[in-house]
Structures are given as structure tokens and as C-alpha cells.
Design brief:
Number of strands: 18
Bound molecules: CIS-heme D hydroxychlorin gamma-spirolactone 17R, 18S
Number of helices: 20
Distance between the termini: 66 Å
Helix content: 25-40%
Structural class: alpha/beta
Largest sheet: 10 strands, antiparallel
Strand content: 5-15%
Length: 703
Amino acid sequence: MTKSSKKPPTKSKPAAAAQTSGNGGETHQTAKGDAILTTNQGIPISDNQNSLKVGARGPVLLEDFVLREKIMHFDHERIPERIVHARGSAAHGYFEPYRSLSNLTRADFLQRAGERTPVFVRFSTVAGSKGSHDVPRDVRGFAVKFYTQEGNFDLVGNNMPVFFIQDAIKFPDLIHAAKPEPDREFPQAATAHDTFWDFISLTPESFHMIMWAMSDRGIPRSYRMMEGFGVHTFRLVNAKGRSTFVKFHWRPKLGMQSVVWDEAVKLNGADNDYHRRDLWETINGGDTVEFELGLQTFSEEEADAFDFDVLDPTKLIPEELVPLEMVCKLVLDRNPDNFFAETEQVAFCVANIVPGIDFTNDPLMQGRLFSYLDTQLKRLGGPNFHQIPVNAPKCPFANLQRDGQMQMAMPKGRVNYEPNSLDPNGPREAPNRGFVSIPVEETGAKLRIRPESFADHYSQARLFFVSQTATEQNHIVAALIFELSKVETPAIRERVVSHLVHIDATLAKRVSAGLGLGTVPAAKAAVRPLDMEPSPALSILQKATPTLTGRMVGLLLGDGADAALVAALRKAVTGAGAKLKIIAEKISGVALADGTMLPVDFRIDGGPSCLFDTVAIMASDKGADKLAGMAPAQDFVRDAYSHLKIIGSTPNLSTLFAKAGLAKEDMDEGCVSFSRNADAATFMTMAAKGKLWAREPKLRPLP
Ligand code: HDE
């Protein structure tokens, strides 16, 4: 028994927090207007600190309904996490067409230029659990719920335009293989292990997606800086019933940006919530997150003429073949009020579609049409999850479905069936406005078979690889070597390389050399791969334009830095639409040469350089000496250099650079000296170009 437990009972009375009731957010208040705590039954609670006991030290009574209700509710706070895409972050916003798309679709929300439709968008990783880190090498989910006036349309996409498998029946196998291995439950949120690559090596259709996943698209810098895709071919159907095939593309306003692998590894340690925080803080700070919607539209006849099948989700349509028309914008401008109620409970469903949009026979999409409703039933516990505010349509909705767990609606009257004559004002079918599936004719024998037109597994993987810059190709080589070096079974490594041979001979040779393998014979290919025209649109770097908008600049300050230099940098950073964060020895502030104390955002060991897009370091001579002796400052410089960042620094920091392992000859064009205020502009021009790729081969040589 502890001493304190023998003390006489105390009654603490901190201010009671407002307790809102579940129904409509009404707050229970005292006569004076102070909010009071109540149970879920509305009974005022007199003491929220002590359970009901017999005497001060006696047993707790079963009749303590306040305790039992509170603990019962707590015990049930968690719902099953998503089997895939468990970790995600979301935001509210709106969607707005630039022009009417009535020539293509009768979808109500696409008829009028400038008309806003509310949206809720959830970004996610795929493989990791809810509490996993934000920057694993992984695909990212990009799911958009449009609350249109003709019901909810969910475009449940990814940040890559193709997928690993061609048929939904393989999805459980793919995900089992990618998730932690079942006997040991590791590795978490990582594909670098035997079971994943075993499955991949035996599934040649996955190799196009593997090229994407091993590219820098697998390690985005921010949810704000990645593309999104609907993946499958959909249909748009206009008022005349004419159907046009369509691929949906999201393009980030800030341009695409990724991190380098070592940066991702360090980010996951430095800030587990790197992407979540980035999205939240951007919107919380009053900025918006914007994307454009682009459409690739094509007819049935055009589709028939392609070298690939548009129903095959392992294929994309090169933009050079079907150009992209940017038609709408998506603006995210409001964070959720409550993560659980909104981000966790949001239920996307590929089958949520509105009149004017329709499905195709893509067998992956067909499987998804079943899966999402089924998974929501499990996660959200019953058939009424559409009534949860984040899932409910924002247009009137009515039918004769009734009852079920957690029914919140209160239908009146005796009529719960249709047709009926007893409720003439009840909901009726709408033959003209209602959703009508496009009457496609389907015939054929009942078979478990893949079409011949799905048999080419390597041509587009090759297209992707040859469309990358040398730097981006190096990253794919490095990623494959990294991942396969974590695979313990040599035969799996070899089998993967046997597929790479079909994609690109040098790619296979380089990966093989990196793994210490000799010449690996090619796997058996169903169809000989074709050489397609390279598509620059598939490369991040070929599309990049210099910018620092929406980026973060980290300024490490030692004692006594020049206030004018700091001010010049701040002005340049703000002018470029970026944010400046100050890192220093103490969180309480850092003294500048003119005696002013500058507020600090990060203590030095909590603000490593991997958190920033570009960095600067400034100090007085004395401050520079002190920084040189601090390991976190040395790491700050070493990592910034190794992550190919532009580094601005005052000239007195050479000892710090030397201690970080950087000799004079390592000082390249990415190391900018700050001696005059005007140097801030030179630094910013350099930094806007992004990473200094020329530095990379010397730091991370590859076969
Ligand atoms: Fe999903 N997927 N998926 N998926 N998916 C889920 O639904 C599934 C696929 C995607 O932020 C689950 O609510 C099957 C492709 C996103 O809440 C589940 C197949 C694409 C999200 C499910 C696929 C996606 C999910 C798990 C193969 C890109 C997160 C929780 C046939 C076009 C949505 C849930 C959110 C979530 C099934 C393949 C995107 C189990 C069976 C291809 C963005 O229903």
C-alpha cells in the first residue's frame, strides 16, 4: 500500500470541460451558463475524479454507473482499422469545374463552370498499420468523396496510375505478401522482405507497378506534392446516352516532389507524422492545398486501336497518345474537426457513382465494387454507416430501407415498402433523373480466364523506365538493390532480376551487379515486349519547374548571428511563398548580434535537416565555434549535404563543415556562402531548383 493511498480523501475541483451530447452538439449548462459534465444519459456528474467506494479506502461499488459507463465507452473506442490504407489524413474542401462538361457527361456536378461541390479527401499509405510512419516506400491512396446534388461520387484512387494485379481475386494474396510476415509480424510498412518479393517474382503482371513503386513516386515529399489517378478506365455518359471512356488524373498545383531514400528513412524517425503534420499545418496556417483534375477521354474505337487493353489496370495511356485536358480544380481548405469522426469513419466506396459516370469491365474494378461496401460493414458495425455525417449525402435522400444497428433516422408512418398507395408523397422511382447503367451488350462463355489482351507484362514497365531521367533511373536501380538485399532467399532475388531483363537489359545488369549476381537468364515471357516512344510526362524531374512555394526552409542559428542577414533571408523565403523555421540550441529563443531574441521553432536535436526542403546556417564567430562542437549540428550539415540540399552558410562555419566530414573540395554549387544580404537571393534561386542531383553519384555510387 502506498503512503498516498492512506491520505484522507481529497476533492479536486478543476473546471469541468464542456460535454456535448451526441445529438446535435447541445451543451448541458448550469443556470449561470457554465457547461457541466453529464453522463451519456444526461445525468449531471458531481465528481469526475473518484469512483464510488465504501469508505475512503474501501472497495469500489458496482452501482457506480458513472464509472461503468465511462469505462465501457472507453473500452469500445477503437474500431477495426482499414485492412489496407489504414494510415491516412484528410481534409475538407471544394471542387469546381472550369467549364461545363455536358458534352461528355450528364453528371450534375460537372454541368456548370464555377459551381462548387463540397469534397472530403483522404490521403493514405497502403501497407502500414494506423500507427505506422508516413514516409515508407509505398503507394499512396488519394480518395475523394464528392458530395454532389445527385448523391455521393467517390473517386478512390492512388498516386500511381496502374496497379500490381489484373484481377481482384489476387488482392488478398498481394496484400498478405506485402504486410508483415504472419509468423513474426515484421517488417511494418515495408515491402523489403521475402514474402512480398516472392509473390511479385511469381506475378509478372506486377512489374509495371513495381517500376512506379521503386521510383521516387513511392516516397513523396508531401501529400500536397503528388499526383493522383483513378487508375481504372471509367465511362462518362452524356444526356444523349453517349459513352466516352475516361481516365481521371489529379495534378498538384505545387508540382511533384519526392525525397531521397535516406531522407525518408531519417524522416520516419525524426517525425513519424511528417505528411500528416504537413497537411494539417498547411491548412491550419490558412493556406490551401490544390490539385487540378485532368481527363484523358477516348472512344471505344480509339481504345480498340491501342496496343494494350484499356480494361487492364496494369496499363496506362501515355499522354502523348491521349492528351490530358485540365477541366476542374480541387481546393482543400478545412481540417477535420475530429479525426475519428471524420477521417477514421469516412467510408469510401468505388460503387458510389452518380448519373453520368459509369463503370467498365476492368476485373479489378469489378472486385472493388464488392469489397468497399463489405469492408465498411465490418469497420463501422452495421448497415447505417451512410448516416454518419462525413458519409451522409449533402442532398436529400430517401428510400424504404429501415432499421438496422445504430439507426439514427426517424421515419414516420406505416409505409416501409414500395410500390404503395398509402403514402402518395413517399419516395418514388425517377426514370428520367435516376441512375441508368449504360446498356452494354455482354456475351460469352462462363470462364475463369485472363484475356489474351492482358498478356503483355513488360512493354509499359519498359516505357516507364526509359521515360525517366538518368537520376530517376539510378533511384529505381538503388531501390531494387536495397529492397532485394533485404530478401533472405537468393532464388527470389534472382527471379526478380529475371523479369527485369525483359524491361531493360542495363537495368537488369545493374541490379544484378548490385546484388552480386552473375548474368541472370530472362524469365519466360508470354508476349515479347514492345518498344514504345518515351513519355516525358512519366518523369517527375522532366516536369519540374523551379519553385519554393509551399516548401519549408530550415535556418540553424548559432549565437549572435547577423540580424540583417537573418531578416534578408526571411524576406526572400516569405516572398517565394515558402516558410522559414528557426532551429537553435534552446527552444526559448536565440540571441542575434543586435541583441534581439528570435523565437525558435525547433531545438537542434528535434529539428534535423531532413525536415526541410533546403537549409541555411548562420552564426557569429563564437556561435560558429560552438555549433562545430555539437553532434546534432554536424548531423544537420552532413544530412543536408547527403540529401542533396542547397546549403547556405556564413563563411565562419568551415570547422562545422569539416567536422561533418565535408572537405573544401566537397563545397559544390549547392553550398552557397552568406556574407552579404544579397546572397539570400542567390541562395533562393539555387534552392528553387530543388535538389542538387549532380552531387548524388559521388555520394552513393551505383553499379
Ligand atoms: Fe482499395 N481497398 N482495393 N484500391 N483502396 C480499400 O476499403 C480493394 C485498389 C484504395 O481513404 C478498403 O475502406 C480491393 C486500387 C484507397 O478510406 C478495401 C482491391 C486502388 C483506399 C479495399 C483494391 C485502391 C482503399 C480498405 C483490388 C486505386 C483507402 C478500407 C480489387 C485505384 C480509402 C476501405 C480511404 C481502401 C479493397 C485495389 C485505392 C478493403 C479488393 C486499384 C485510396 O475495401
